[in-house]
Protein: cellulase
Organism: Hibiscus syriacus
Amino acid sequence: MSYMVGFGSKYPTQLHHRGSSIPSIHTHPNKVGCNDGMSYFSSNNPNPNQHVGAIVGGPNSNDHFDDRRSDYSHSEPTTYINGAFVGAVAAVLDETKGEPLQQLQTNTTINRIDHV
């Protein structure tokens, strides 16, 4: 299971994120007020708007993940999770000088911490 929305064949579909859980104006042209949005937010349906690239909290201490919007500690995309990922990707891009990684094995470790 991927904990990044839109990555892989199985990923979270019920992020704890109000904007993702409310229908787009393109599919629901009527105004949705703040209080009206709770009916969408508390729904068990997948989010109508995919927050592609967002990384959620992930599994619990028993390595189990419930894809439920109400389980915010595991299904909410946060800046402290997503920000760390951006930093790691930036380090890889710096290491590879922006060139595509050819045939990178899944168990490859990229270890470079020389920037302070």
Remarks:
- DSSP finds four helices and no strands in the chain.
- The chain has one domain: 4-96.
- The radius of gyration is 17 Å.
